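User: Teach me something about this protein's shape.
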Amino acid sequence: MGCVGSTQKGEENSKKLRKPKPWKHTQPITSAELKQMRDEFWDTAPHYGGQKEIWDALRAAAEADLSLAQAIVDSAGIIVSSTDMTLCYDERGAKYELPKYVLSEPTNLIRDS
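Assistant: First, the predicted structure itself:
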């Protein structure tokens, strides 16, 4: 019976992921500018604490569709505090904050033509 209890405990820690709410950047930005912002975040994020493996899993989840993102988060043991993934924790209690711009596109994104 211990195995059943541990499975249920794991499910308590994982919330069902959702797409972030629509958001607007302070000024219209291009896809290239958004990509640069994302690259800069992911390059520097591990230097602010937490485990590199968790940051790598969060990046993979942020760049995946919702069902794959859910599988990545669950298998990495990431505790999702907010369902849009803006606030997560690892099993050791380290905090991982993700800005909306790494999770979705702003409503005022300038499409490349």
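Now, about its shape. Strands lie at 29-30, 79-80, 87-89, 95-97, 109-110. The longest strand covers residues 87-89. If you'd like, I can walk through any region in more detail.
User: That's plenty for now, thanks!
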